[in-house]
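Researcher: Here's a chain I'd like modeled. Treat it as a single chain, no partners, no ligands.
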Amino acid sequence: MTPDRSALPLHVEETIGAFAELHASHSGGTSPMRFGIARITRLVGRPVFLLAITLGIAAWILVNLAMLHAGSRPFDAPPFAWLQDTVSGLALVMTILIFSTQQRDDAIADRRDQLNLQLALLSDQKLSKLIGLLEDLRRDDPHIADRTDLQADEMAVPADAHVISEAIKQKIDPRQP
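Model: Modeled as a single isolated chain. Structure tokens:
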């Protein structure tokens, strides 16, 4: 049963739309070759593929041993040089597929991380503004006793990403300039 999306608040609908747009922009810049590589990598990554490869290798060995015992010439006699070459070639191709897919996934993750950072900085600015407005409201309201709140004054100032980054670097490795 599909949930009723008309019950969602407008801001949730907008968030879903923004997420779908972000996903579409990631997919839109992908070439058909990259989509094909990703599809093949997903196929290779399934447990059924491992089972198929294992059964294929076992069948290769059994057929060749059966041919050898039957007195006919096997197409790949022990120590199965062709099998070794085939498996090595498949391993190389699978490695390239995985690296290619990982490269695309890393690029998407980097974009997502950058977006998260931008949203976090924007949220910090908004919260700082909100704290500042609440402090102004508290000072202006005659029914509330006027007092100094140093913590609220500090929180009303937006964080400086560069200063925080340098402080983290210094904390992690104090020897860095």
